[in-house]
Amino acid sequence: MERIITKNDNPLMDAINCSPPDNFIIIPNTILKNPSISFKAKGIFSLLISNEDEYIPYLDIIKKASTDGETSIKAGLSELEKAGYFRRFKYRDKKTKKWVGSFWGITDTPNSFNIDIYIQKLEKLGCEIPTLKKQ
């Protein structure tokens, strides 16, 4: 998805590491020992979780860090998404309801995406993530 709000207008990042920040990464045994997740997906997870929030994880950049092609990387991302380690978030303008951007969430705890600060930034810009469950 092409972002309508430009980087200069928008303090938002393209990916959020939803795990606690450290100078190193710890890969959870649950993902490493999970036989339903391929080594390809485990490698993509390791690359994504090792980067800072400002990292821009476009497929071309991921391809440069690997010998895998785009189809293979997309399949790995889908595996991670099904397992709850990766999620794509789309956001839209609250008034117009027009989709204006997206970002990726990566977490080391399945289905636990801590994006509260990001949601606050979106709200200040007049945007929302309508797919999130209202509490």
Summarize the helix and strand pattern as letters.
EHHHHEEHE
**Helix count, DSSP H or I runs of 4 or more residues:** 5
Instruction: State the CATH architecture.
Output: Orthogonal Bundle
| General shape | globular
In short:
The chain is an alpha+beta fold and 135 residues long. It has one domain (15-20, 28-128): Arc Repressor Mutant, subunit A. The protein contains five helices and four strands.
Mind explaining what this structure looks like?
The mean pLDDT is 83. The chain has a single domain, classed as Orthogonal Bundle (Arc Repressor Mutant, subunit A). By secondary structure, it is an alpha+beta fold. Strand 2 and strand 3 form a beta hairpin. It is built from five helices and four strands, in the order E-H-H-H-H-E-E-H-E. The longest helix has 14 residues. 33% of the residues lie in helices and 16% in strands. The two termini are 28 Å apart.
Topology:
Elements: E1 15-17, H1 29-32, H2 39-49, H3 59-64, H4 70-83, E2 86-93, E3 99-106, H5 116-124, E4 127-128
Parallel strand pairs: 1-3
Antiparallel strand pairs: 2-3, 2-4
Which features would summarize this protein structure in a list?
single chain, 135 residues, alpha+beta, Arc Repressor Mutant, subunit A, 4-stranded mixed sheet, 5 helices
